[in-house]
Amino acid sequence: MQNNFKALTLSYKHAPINVREAVALNEIGCRNLLDKIREFTDAQDVLVLSTCNRTEVYYISEKELDQAIIKLIAMERGFISTKKITPYFKHITDPELAVQHLFYVGLGLESQVVGDMQILNQVKKAYQWSAEANMAGPFLHRLLHTIFATNKQVFNETSFFDGAASVSYATVELVEELIADLVNPRVLMIGVGEIGANVCDNFQKSTINNVVIANRTHHKAQALAEKTNATAVYWENVWEEIAQADVVISSVPGDCFFISKEVIAQQGVTTPKFFLDLSMPRSIDSTLEEIAGVKVYNVDTIKNRASEALEMRMAAIPQVQQIISAAMVEFSTWTREMAMSPALQQFKSKLEEIRQQELNRYMKNLGEAEREVVEKLTQNILNKIVKLPALELKAACMRGESEALVEGLAALFSLEKDKV
Q1: N or C: the chain end with fewer CB closer than 10 Å?
Q2: PANTHER family from the xrefs (predicted)?
């Protein structure tokens, strides 16, 4: 494993939302931070990942740069003091644990919703920004592609990504099932609290693109609509919107707003109409189902869907961890092979130097045809000599014993230790 790979992480597990908001970076912020890290530190193979639940920086450096990076994050976010945010950052200096953490984050083991597939897309974007900033070296390239391949294996071989494991995901999944046969269905979201906002966020990952948002405070509906590519309407028009919608989702408490059977019956229902009640107390009359063509689903139904999916995902975690462990072993072997590569190159260069010295001594007395034969013969001998220790070093890498062999090679052939 690369001895200097580190991770600096702040996440929902240890930091409240106001702290996460204080350090959260959009794309421009992530790109700017990459530039600042390159300018003010010696860090290499840098990855900056920032989502609503975490802000993390992965890097390679002989020195610990965590405090410097926290200051650069503060500079990018426009505040000077780091006292309020520093205690929430966690430092992972063990390279194997840092690699494992990135595996777990990328595959959704560290997500609030276990198995969240959206995080991998965010990791891919972060990787793209690192590559475009010339901050991704061979180590990071190999590590990220190993994670992507591992994610594909987990997807194909386990049930870890199956089902919708949160209420908001499960709501969108249920809506997709209900309107599968409808053309351009209209979905009305009433209320923009936390759950309403999450549902609208998740509709962005859906094929449903006709979402309308209604809220008593219009500017909140407008802000969420702009963020989620939806349409905001004024609260005064909510009953008209209910009449037009194919699906009505309510997250407004029933003691503030209530959709009764009498009102919906007066509106008249001519096509299938679905009501999803995410509020507590309930804001949709369960007796609506007595109206022909109307179906009502409450929060318990949706939570049960999410709970079943979450249980299935949790059961798959040991299998996922096993797949990750195997991938990490393979990646660790590659890093050790990379570490021994300079020693092998020096060894080959040393032998080539000896070969050239001896050729220069005797070749002047040979004809052109003889020169070609001797050149080819000695080159083949050199390649075969190098091949034996190369194979042995590769086998030693698999066993985790390459360092002793590299040191022995350096001592035998007077190789430069600082380059080995």
Answers
A1: C
A2: GLUTAMYL-TRNA REDUCTASE
Which residues does the chain have with pLDDT short of 50?
Answer: 1, 417-420
Q: What is the pLDDT of residue 222?
A: 96
pLDDT for 411: 61
Of 52, 200, 256, 397, which is the active-site residue?
Answer: 52
User: For residue 420, what pLDDT is reported?
Assistant: 44
Report the 3 state secondary structure along 184-197.
Answer: CCCEEEECCCHHHH
Q: Which residues are annotated as a binding site for substrate?
A: 51-54, 111, 116-118, 122
Residue 111: predicted pLDDT: 85
pTM over 0.70: no
| Separation of alpha carbons 340 and 400, rounded Å | 12
Residues making up the annotated binding site are 51-54, 111, 116-118, 122, 191-196
Query: How confident is the model at residue 399, as a pLDDT?
Result: 62
- Numbered residues of the known binding site for NADP(+): 191-196
* CATH number belonging to the domain at 5-157, selected among 2.40.300.10, 3.30.460.30, 1.25.40.10, 3.30.1330.10: 3.30.460.30
Any catalytic annotation for residue 52? yes
- Residue 418: what pLDDT? 47
